[in-house]
Write a structure and sequence with these properties.
It contains 2 helices and 15 strands. The chain is mainly beta.
Length: 221
């Protein structure tokens, strides 16, 4: 390999790293993980209920997906069964079917406190946690910007451990927040999503492959 080619590759690698395309922490889930549990059977809303936001639109299950129609302004589902508060990872695939705002507002527990991971909010491109020390996903240190295409599935993962919240989209890390001495909360609009809920804002969204995985066995290794 020539010296010129080595220099070119080194420069490109540096650029990719700066863009977050190389060296980003990845969320890897072992195949057939016995600690993993499905939260959606692909046929019904078993375990879920329609969130009564007021102004919510139709929700249906078809073709192995949950379709939440655009509400005025919000539509969502809330989990009705037991769910861990710490040391877990939740994952799902989400799609913006139509609209221009968030198609996945994932509200989840962090110990006794709730938090939300917003995907595609504030006009379509904001990603982040709501809320950290009273600041929402558009104005705190977790704020990122990403282009989302309608009709495309995105893998969303959130991992909650004793001292950290992490989140990924398509296995590219978006959030890596140490939670010690931080105030974790949610916006009042998603209070009815507790303890676990998924919502969309003035946007039709589709969901599938909703799963939770315990981190207990992983920590003991």
């Amino acid at each position: 390999m020539t010296h010129r080619r080595i220099v070119a590759i080194t420069i490109l690698a540096g650029l990719f790293s700066a863009w977050g395309l190389v060296g980003a922490a990845r969320a890897e889930s072992p195949a057939n993980d016995p600690a993993e549990k499905s939260l959606f059977d692909g046929q019904t809303l078993k375990g879920w209920k329609k969130t009564q936001f007021g102004g919510e639109a139709e929700i249906e299950v078809k073709e192995g997906r949950i379709v939440m129609r655009a509400g005025s302004p919000m539509t969502g589902i809330t989990w009705t069964e037991a769910f861990p508060k710490i040391d877990y990872e939740i994952s799902l695939e989400a799609m913006r079917v139509d609209g221009s705002d968030f198609f996945c507002g994932l509200t989840f527990p962090v110990g006794e406190s709730p938090c939300s991971f917003i995907v595609g909010g504030w006009g379509g491109g904001v990603v982040g946690l709501s809320s950290i020390d009273g600041s929402d996903a558009s104005e705190n240190e977790t704020t990122k910007y990403m282009e989302f295409k309608s009709g495309r599935w995105y893998l969303v993962q959130v991992r909650v451990s004793k001292d950290k919240i992490e989140a990924w989209i398509d296995k590219l890390q978006m959030v890596n927040l140490a939670t010690k001495d931080r105030r974790i909360s949610i916006r009042s609009e998603v209070e009815l999503s507790r303890p676990l809920g998924i919502s969309c804002f003035a946007t039709t969204a589709a969901l599938r492959e909703i799963k939770v995985r315990s981190l207990g066995d992983e920590k003991s290794k």
